[in-house]
Amino acid sequence: MQVVLYRRNSKNQLYYYSMDDRQQSLFHPHALTIRWGRKPEGGREKQFYFSSEKEKNAKIRSLLKAKLKDYQVLYSYFKDSAAGTKTPGKGNGDSLVSRIS
Q1: Domain at 23, CATH number
Q2: Which pTM was predicted?
């Protein structure tokens, strides 16, 4: 899963906020990485670790709900584990972003 959000400030400068779960932790089965800053790859980074996918998904939902108040979606990619889709904007996450926003 990868989501990239963006917003502009009053000086028309872009700020990015991205999250992905591609990097797994050696000691935790589920991980979430967020990056934010003036560049798409992020200036700062924070990682969250979870013992279950349910906990990770709850954190993703809460972060998206908070950030979608100020940010717009630039890109989203979700792999639907049930259907096996791997295309941008398709799968279980597309509806997740639209339901939260």
Answers
A1: 2.20.140.10
A2: 0.77
